Task: inverse folding
């Protein structure tokens, strides 16, 4: 059946910023959807507030709106663009909910827009717990005993039926936000309250617990002829009770017979039909009682998802791309399987390998939060690995995590056994390693199974790994044994550690013995048909499927799992590097292990190696492919860490030399560099003891910025105001990592921080963007909002920044990207940091200036000069604001910003002036500015003077200012009309009551040292839970005033990116 | 040879592995199966008689074997080849680990083989004869022995797997021909060319009295049982090797409604005057897309055949109802005037999807009309 001709223009809604539970997998799906629909000849209008995405590249859609995903903003876009259809299934829960909102508000009807992919009724049937339950029952399937409640007393009535432990799931939320398990009545009441609050419709499902049952997931596709295929089956290693996003998962299912698998498949097909998903992908989760096979349906997502991204990478079947094509009326049999190129997409992939996914957590960033894994997702990223058996896939995935382990190492000793058994009874991110240790200490598989409910099949596999480990310990480097170890996924480093041999000796010996890996293809069909897509993974077997070409080729090393500090921005850069190579006629080879990304789409580069980013694994690819060189500057720290070792092995590193990178990273060499150029950096010192630290701090003066050397994302970085705090910090830091010295920098209070992204071709330097941070220096650059172009710097400072950027690029002989952080204080320009590599802001700058910065850089790396590329700096007439998005609410943790990065994602506001752009950025970051009402201010003494101007302006534009006694007196003395309100400890009613009663529309709250943070913590907690707009810095508050003014003046525009750059 | 096993193909290629089944030596045509689950059903499928079966999914044995999923009385294949055998199974229905079954039934099996390489070889060079041994790794000797092993073409494997006596299938068991059956709407006689139990189970579930007869039962003898319909079952090998079956079916055409599955389909087609060709490496797996040409809908089907039917010379009388979307081969036919139809694939699944299970109901409905 041909595709539809009655629609020409399709609106796609993206997922917005990266948050926990909704990450770059939707950039992968959105990008595929845009490409697929345009390939079919449709016009695509895209809206997404996240600039760090490939999908928002202006060449991927006909009109690209980097605008907030709100009813108001999307209605404006619809008015402007008049699409005939809306595809709501590509942008996660955000897009799906927005489609419902647009329908409910009558917008779609008014403009005659049809929902394609999933209709209103089917979204409701899948997402509303009660109606979904009916679908399940109508299909003759079983659901766990459950009912929905809209208040606590209803919930309690349901509890009587389901009993403890009870599962609480809010309706219409993503990533299990607000869900939980209650074991007693107190927990139950708290969790029901929380769930009702987090559900946009104040509804929660109370469900009988099937904790300890097995969990499975199927990924399905359906077309309009009602053809249904199951693309992938997934078995969770973690039993029920852990959110699937936080579970280790395996594809395909391992422990079900065909009869059981087919029963699940039949059930899934009945459900997708019952729910009435018109076309596209869905995932359905099941739980199964391992005692008797009793099968229950848990839930369904009528859209592409994190799991469908994983399933696409695990099978080679691009779910989002095909879903997009189905949404315009094509059928599965009309779409070709890209990989075989001769067979249709109407089939079910068969795997001849095993896939393991392991989530990556960032608990170290949030020391106070509960680390137990439960129904609410907590991981920030994931890795996937492919092997010819489970053990190989598991160990490859584990080393892909980059958690500084050689393998699943032994940590606990026999003395800890009692403790260990207790530990493994609670699922945490450490459980895998603890389970390994429990088995190492001789506890039986049966007992570990009883405690953890992990299927004995997996435990037996673990045991087989441990048997190899033991034999290596006893027998050492013996060929047959090491061959077995390599087939089971052991790294040379791990083998070296077990056998007390340096890694490189293991490698040399192994190669001499002929133990080298081969590469096999992921081809959807178990080799039944010839694969035309070089999507490869390594294994130790006979035949190599790689068939490397003899073209000029370049290897791009990707950025591995997403984590706080290294996320989608780096994947964006890697994808652009591949695009640049393609445009220049080179073969591009991508190496990465993150299944959520666009870089691991087999369509992105010419060849894709889905492999861990370790020296050993990367060297195998290099030895096979023999590239002209390797690019390490686009994937963040992950590839940079490998640069020296690659160089030592004779690999050509393209672009800026590793030595230049070292010159910028090594503190001593960096200091020499700055001195040589006659630039300034904040006074600093490198210390190794408390007394040294005290001396240095004394010399440079408090406050100081302290951090361990060689860190990422501001890990463990703090601002210290006095000697006592310094002692405390140092004694802790020295216990944690005694080998690494601590850096102490003068903290430039109230300085303006500047971020610069530039490209050099070795001759010329292109200053792509000079960004002024909204928050003052001291807030991590990844957490700070920033403006492009700068809004307060004078020309002299800008000139200096530009000159120093160029001088540094030349001195370091940068070829490719470079990022510099400056601080400007009292007219003086200081250099804080130089990173001769791609940075987090590259995509933001690219979107703002309308030039593909990473692509230009890659071309420069390949020797095409900036001149030859015709690159020149252009003045822009608009302003763009990047704002960070944080997981504070999900983690119920404090929202104070500091030198340690905590944000998971970012949004962009772009408009014709600063205020309007800022207002948009805040709306997109779900911190939308109010235009009237009461503003509560509470600031540290240092900020009071600055606050007075803000308060004054807010009063003038109609806000009522409220403050606690001290601040109120101060402001009133300056002639302002400020109402006094009680602090928490001053009796009632106080500020907390006012916040809870929703009497406050905006909060400005700055705090000094750690102690004063504790006092106001409660306030920030309520502000977060109730989503009251807030600012914790004066600079942020000041920008907010501009934003509010812009809204009041009606300056907010809705324009596509293409128009800003035309 | 100490736990070792070797597979030698007729082209001289050698795959060394580790024995995990019975000790011995066994030869046959090597085929690969792409089903990720269902090794127990594959092993018990009589259609694999005369063949060495290799699974493309690398981990086999994970869930052991149970008492409920057998598809016939015993294991019929010549040998079993996998990438990695899992010795310790996990599943609530598991009765024993797979290797115990293999050893008990004398089936040679090896693992640690680069099965993907083997698959590619078969894909590129077509079906080949192979010999599997745990007794010797003398390649020349094995190649010599392989020469004496007959291929599948023209060979009657059905006579080795068919039942010796007729029986009635009741509650999943064989019963005497005169056994009473509680309530039944129709009487179906099934020609056992190597029938899988699930075919019989699905007919029983539709309230049929199911009488199973040996492959060489004459048309008259079948008619004497007074069936409402006749089902021609699946089975091993080349239909051209079964002239008696083709003759019998020819005699039954027009007498009773007939439905054929797999080998039964091929026999029916030959009886109707079609041609049969050996395929390069056949279809063996559970993910084959088949289009119903009338509805344009796609079924994901379980398949297991190495021969395909060519209808070009009898287009007048017989219509193509289904085709395979991967290679456009014939998957289903219907006579334009007579009540006979057949499919090349397995509506009974076992292993494999149930997308085509409705065929049994359609057949039973048609004979009740």
Result:
């Amino acid at each position: 059946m041909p595709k539809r001709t009655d629609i020409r223009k399709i609106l796609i809604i993206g997922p917005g910023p990266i948050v926990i539970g909704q990450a770059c997998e939707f950039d992968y799906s959105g990008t595929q959807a845009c490409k697929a629909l345009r390939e079919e000849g449709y016009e695509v209008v895209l809206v997404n507030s996240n600039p760090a995405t490939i999908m928002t590249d202006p060449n991927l859609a006909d009109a690209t709106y980097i605008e907030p995903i709100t009813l108001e903003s999307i209605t404006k876009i619809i008015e402007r663009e008049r699409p005939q259809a809306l595809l709501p299934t590509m942008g996660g829960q955000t897009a799906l909910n927005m489609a419902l909102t647009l329908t409910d508000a009558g917008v779609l009807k008014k403009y005659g827009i049809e929902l394609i992919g999933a209709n209103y009724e089917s979204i409701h049937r899948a997402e509303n717990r009660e109606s979904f339950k009916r679908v399940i029952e109508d299909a003759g399937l079983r659901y766990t005993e459950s009912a929905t409640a809209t208040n606590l007393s209803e919930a309690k009535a349901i509890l009587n039926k389901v009993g403890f432990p009870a599962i609480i799931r809010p309706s219409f939320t993503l990533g299990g936000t607000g869900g939980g398990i209650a074991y007693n009545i107190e927990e139950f009441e708290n969790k029901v309250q929380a769930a009702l609050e987090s559900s946009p419709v104040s509804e929660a499902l109370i469900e009988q617990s099937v904790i300890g049952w097995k969990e499975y997931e199927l990924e399905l596709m359906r077309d309009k002829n009602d053809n249904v295929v199951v693309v992938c089956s997934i078995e969770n290693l973690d039993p029920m009770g852990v959110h699937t996003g936080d579970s280790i998962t395996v594809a395909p299912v391992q422990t079900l017979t065909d009869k059981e698998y087919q029963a699940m498949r039949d059930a899934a097909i009945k459900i997708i039909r019952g729910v009435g998903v018109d076309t596209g992908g869905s995932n359905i989760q099941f739980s199964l009682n391992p005692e008797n096979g009793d099968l229950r349906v848990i839930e369904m997502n009528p859209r592409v998802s994190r799991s469908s991204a994983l399933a696409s990478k695990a099978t080679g079947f691009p779910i989002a791309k095909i879903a997009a094509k189905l949404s315009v009326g094509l059928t599965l049999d009309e779409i070709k399987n890209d990989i075989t190129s001769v067979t249709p997409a109407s089939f079910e992939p068969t795997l001849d390998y095993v896939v393991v996914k392991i989530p990556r957590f960032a608990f170290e960033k949030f020391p106070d939060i509960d680390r137990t894994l439960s129904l609410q997702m907590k991981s920030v990223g994931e890795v996937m690995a492919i092997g010819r058996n489970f053990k190989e896939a598991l160990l490859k995935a584990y080393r892909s995590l980059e958690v500084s382990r050689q393998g699943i190492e032994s940590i606990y000793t026999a003395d800890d056994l009692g403790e260990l058994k207790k530990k493994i009874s609670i699922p945490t991110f450490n459980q895998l390693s603890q389970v390994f240790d429990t088995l190492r200490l001789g506890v039986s598989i049966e007992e570990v199974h009883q405690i953890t409910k992990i299927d004995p099949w997996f435990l037996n596999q673990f045991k087989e790994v441990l048997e190899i480990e033991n034999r290596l310990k006893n027998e050492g480097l013996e060929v047959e044994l090491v061959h077995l170890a390599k087939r089971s996924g052991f790294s040379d480093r791990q083998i070296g550690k077990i056998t007390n041999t340096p890694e490189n000796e293991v490698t040399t010996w192994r190669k001499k013995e002929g133990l080298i890996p081969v590469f096999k293809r992921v081809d959807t069909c178990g080799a039944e048909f010839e694969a035309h897509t070089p999507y490869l993974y390594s294994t130790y077997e006979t035949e190599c499927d790689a068939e490397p070409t003899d073209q000029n080729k370049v290897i791009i090393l990707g950025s591995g799992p997403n984590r706080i500090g290294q996320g989608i921005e780096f994947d964006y850069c890697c994808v652009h590097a591949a695009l640049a190579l393609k445009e220049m006629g080179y073969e591009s080879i991508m190496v990465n292990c993150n299944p959520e990304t666009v870089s691991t789409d087999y369509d992105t580069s010419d060849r894709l190696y889905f492999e861990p980013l370790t020296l050993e694994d990367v060297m195998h690819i290099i030895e096979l492919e023999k590239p002209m060189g390797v690019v390490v500057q686009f994937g963040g720290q992950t590839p940079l860490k490998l640069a020296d070792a690659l160089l030592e092995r004779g690999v050509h590193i393209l672009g800026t030399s590793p030595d230049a990178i070292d010159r910028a990273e090594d503190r001593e060499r960096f200091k020499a560099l700055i001195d040589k150029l006659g630039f300034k950096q904040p006074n600093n010192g490198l210390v190794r003891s408390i007394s040294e630290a005290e001396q240095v701090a004394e010399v440079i003066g408090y406050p100081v910025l302290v951090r361990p050397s060689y860190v990422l994302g501001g890990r463990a970085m703090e601002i210290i105001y006095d000697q006592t705090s310094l002692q405390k910090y140092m004694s802790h830091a020295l216990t944690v990592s005694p080998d690494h010295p601590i850096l102490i920098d003068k903290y430039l209070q109230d300085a303006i921080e500047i971020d610069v992204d530039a490209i050099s071709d070795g001759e010329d330097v292109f200053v792509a963007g000079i960004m002024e941070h909204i928050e003052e220096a001291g807030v991590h650059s990844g957490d700070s909002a920033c403006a492009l172009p700068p809004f307060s710097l004078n020309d002299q400072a800008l000139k200096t920044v530009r000159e120093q950027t160029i001088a540094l690029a030349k001195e370091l002989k940068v070829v490719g990207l470079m990022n510099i952080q400056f601080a400007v204080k009292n007219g003086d320009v200081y250099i804080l940091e130089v990173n001769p590599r791609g940075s987090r802001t590259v995509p933001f700058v690219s979107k703002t200036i309308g030039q593909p910065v990473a692509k230009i850089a890659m071309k420069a790396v390949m020797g095409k000069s900036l001149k030859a590329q015709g690159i020149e700096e252009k003045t822009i007439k608009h302003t763009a604001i990047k704002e960070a998005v944080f997981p504070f609410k999900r983690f119920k943790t404090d929202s104070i910003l500091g030198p340690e990065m905590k944000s998971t994602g970012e949004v962009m506001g772009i408009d014709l002036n600063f205020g309007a752009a800022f207002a948009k950025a805040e709306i997109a970051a779900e911190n939308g500015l109010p235009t009237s009402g009461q503003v509560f201010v509470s600031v540290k003494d240092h900020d009071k003077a600055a606050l007075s101007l803000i308060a004054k302006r807010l009063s003038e534009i109609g806000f009522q200012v409220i403050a606690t006694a001290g601040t109120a007196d101060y402001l009133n003395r300056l002639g302002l009309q400020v109402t006094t309100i009680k602090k928490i400890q001053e009796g009632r009613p106080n500020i907390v009551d006012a916040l809870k009663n929703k009497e406050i529309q905006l909060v400005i709250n700055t705090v000094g040292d750690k102690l004063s943070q504790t006092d106001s913590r409660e306030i920030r907690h309520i502000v977060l839970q109730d989503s009251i707009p807030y600012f914790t810095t004066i600079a942020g508050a000041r920008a907010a005033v501009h934003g509010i003014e812009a809204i009041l003046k009606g300056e907010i525009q809705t324009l596509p990116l293409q128009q800003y750059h035309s | 040879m100490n736990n070792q096993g070797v597979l030698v193909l007729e082209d001289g290629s050698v795959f060394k592995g580790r024995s995990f089944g019975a000790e011995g030596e066994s030869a046959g045509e090597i085929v690969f199966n792409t089903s990720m689950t269902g090794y127990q059903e594959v092993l018990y499928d009589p259609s694999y008689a005369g063949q060495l079966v290799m699974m493309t999914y690398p981990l086999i044995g994970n869930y052991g074997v149970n008492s409920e999923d057998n598809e016939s009385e015993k294991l019929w294949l010549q040998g079993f080849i996998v990438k990695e055998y899992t010795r310790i199974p996990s599943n609530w229905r598991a009765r024993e680990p797979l290797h115990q079954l293999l050893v008990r039934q004398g089936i040679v099996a090896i693992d640690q083989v680069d099965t993907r390489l083997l698959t590619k070889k078969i894909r590129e060079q077509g079906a080949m004869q192979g010999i599997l041994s745990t007794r010797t790794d003398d390649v020349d000797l094995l190649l010599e022995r392989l020469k004496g092993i007959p291929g599948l073409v023209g060979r009657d494997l059905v006579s080795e797997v068919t039942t010796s006596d007729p029986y009635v299938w009741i509650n999943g068991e064989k019963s005497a021909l005169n056994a009473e059956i509680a309530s039944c709407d129709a009487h179906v006689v099934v020609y056992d060319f190597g029938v899988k139990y699930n075919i019989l189970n699905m007919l029983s579930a539709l309230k049929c009295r199911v009488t199973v007869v040996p492959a060489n039962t004459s048309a008259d003898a079948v008619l004497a049982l007074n069936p409402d319909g006749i089902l021609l079952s699946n089975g091993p090998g080349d239909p051209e090797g079964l002239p008696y079956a083709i003759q019998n079916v020819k005699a039954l055409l027009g007498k009773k409604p007939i439905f054929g599955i797999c080998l039964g389909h091929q026999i029916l087609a030959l009886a109707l005057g079609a041609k049969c060709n050996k395929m390069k490496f056949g279809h063996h797996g559970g993910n084959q897309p088949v289009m119903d040409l009338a509805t344009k809908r796609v079924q994901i089907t379980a398949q297991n055949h190495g021969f395909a039917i060519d209808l070009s010379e009898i287009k007048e009388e017989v219509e193509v109802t289904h085709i395979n979307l991967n290679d456009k081969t014939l998957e289903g036919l219907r006579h334009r005037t007579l009540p006979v139809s057949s499919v090349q694939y397995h509506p009974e699944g076992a292993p494999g999807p149930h997308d085509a299970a409705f065929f049994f109901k359609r057949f039973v409905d048609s004979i009740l009309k």
Summary: The radius of gyration of chain A is 28 Å. Chain A is about 40% helix and 20% strand.
